[in-house]
Amino acid sequence: MSSPLYCNQLENHNYKQQMKNFSFILTLLTAFTLVFSSCTEEEPDNGVTISGIPATAKIDAGAKLGPVTGSAEGLDGLVSLSITKDGAPLSTLTLTGTTATFPFEYTAVAADAGKNLVFEFTVTDADGDVAKATHVLTVGAEPTTIRVTSNITANTTWVTGKTYILGARIFVVAPAKLTIQKGVIVKGEAGTGANATALVIARGAQIDAQGTATEPIIFTSVADEIAPGQIAGTNLEPTVEGLWGGLIVLGRAKCSFAGDVTELAIEGIPATDTNGLYGGTNDADNSGILKFISIRHGGSLIGASNEINGLTLGGVGSGTVIENVEVVANQDDGIEWFGGTVSVKNALIWNSGDDAVDTDQSWAGTLDNFIVISGVNTDHALEIDGPEGTYNAAHTVKNGSVKGHPSTEFGDFRSKARGTFENLYFFNFPAPADNTNAGRGDLSLDAATVPNFTGTTGPLVFKKLEATLKSGVTLATAFRNGTDVYASEVALKANTVGATKAAFVGWTWADKAGQLADFK
């Protein structure tokens, strides 16, 4: 039998052991509760927001929306932005960080006209949360007349069926290319001085204007009511001039400048505008392509005795292609070359206000197959100037037919003029007694040029000149300074040299107006 003392000791031991067990269980329960609480507590969900996208907008087909700047925020970390157009994927952008901005722009094409386009923007974060924004773009009809007021600094296309209005002097700036599709009409707004409108292809830029024999590209005035699809206008006479500027192409080919500088500001552009510089050392420079273009009613005055030519070619290189060009009713010259090496094939100048064909500063290309139809203000059919610096080069003018006017001379060769002039036919020029301007109707050389004319081997050469002369006019009075040795008289339309007018039939205003009837 146990003693009372022993029993008390045993009870105390059991009690202490139970308390230890209880304390251990309590500790386990506390730990389990803490673990369970930490496992079941959810991380905070911060969500995603998107802003900056307008709900609606309206533009015409061909126009651009934006750029619009959207913003996204996701404190859990942004992952991506996806954009759909009418439910179809349009683009996907990877996003990083907790905030991001993104640009959006859209150019409406012709097929979008009359539609409501639905764009949906979806931003996703690292937790898979999303935010959405919807934009509805209403697209109107594509405009047929577009006014251009800023320089062209990126590749741009002017589209068939449209008319483009020059609201200022517009430069195509390097390295941009302006493509003008067939049948386009370009109209210059009225303006003189610094406000004269013109299209200028600056050095290093290019123009690709390729009309066709059925759809020429026409440069004219806003006063001209001509519309796409027409070749002849309906309201302006072919004698109306000076309503806008003209087309100016500038390049980096060599020119002969006074003081042997390598570049100058082109005639017709304020000297303060560096985009108007021309000249350089690259004779193969390429300023683009001009084919089947007609330039009308230009030649705005920008200063005393400083007008813009119909087509001005300043330092343009031989890599440039120019074929089938008509210039009608320009207040200054029809086509003027200032140095350079570019050649021109198939050119027609009608009613030029000063000279039809004007060459300067040692142009070194070729003019092949051309027609001049002189008007009441035409001074010279040909005005040929020599070099202004030590650089000497010569050009070739050949296969041309020139119809005169009582106010017009065959040609004026001056300032040490150089070049080869062959297969040229002149007719309808006045006899000396028919006008009050002594010497009108002749081809003459000034004193500085005579030494260059030494026959068929000198720097100035004439070959196969023909003329239909009025009664009492001899070859010696029509072709002066001994040039008559290379000329012969023929009956009207009996010429064996001159232009091939077939190149101008169908697409020129001159042909539509019946002005080619006297040409073979």
Describe this protein's structure:
This protein has 520 residues and is mainly beta. The protein has two domains: 48-140, Immunoglobulins (Immunoglobulin-like, Sandwich), CATH 2.60.40.10; 145-512, Pectate Lyase C-like, CATH 2.160.20. It contains three helices and 36 strands. The chain has helices at 4-40, 475-478, 509-512; strands at 48-51, 56-60, 64-74, 78-85, 88-94, 99-107, 116-125, 130-140, 145-148, 156-158, 163-166, 169-172, 177-180, 185-188, 198-201, 206-210, 217-221, 247-250, 264-265, 277-278, 288-296, 301-303, 306-307, 311-314, 321-328, 335-338, 344-350, 355-360, 366-373, 380-385, 396-403, 409-414, 419-427, 443-445, 460-468, 487-489. The chain has a 15-stranded parallel β-sheet that branches. Strands 12-15-18-24-26-28-30-32-34 form a nine-stranded parallel β-sheet, with no helix packed on it. The chain has a five-stranded mixed β-sheet with strand order 2-8-7-4-5, with no helix packed on it. Strand 35, helix 2 (475-478) and strand 36 form a beta-alpha-beta unit.
